[in-house]
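At this stage, I needed to go through a protein sequence along with its fold in token form, as given directly below:
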Amino acid sequence: MPKKERKRLQVVISDEQDALLTRTAYELSSPERLISKSEVVRLAIEKIARELGEGAHIDEYRAILDADDVSDDA
């Protein structure tokens, strides 16, 4: 079966955000299955999109994005 093609995205994250990703991947992992930081990012994307589709947490997400430490300087 051919491997599923995926798009690649490169982002710059802070040391704190990397630590959060690492900790989350560790917490989601089990002895049977290790979870990667990329899988955590994909899960977060799906969760946020689902919540926004339901009209939930929009103001909360906007407030987070408006914070200086999360904004994209590019």
Remarks:
- The chain has one domain: 15-66.
- Residues 15-66 form one domain.
- The radius of gyration is 15 Å.
- The first helix runs from residue 15 to 28.
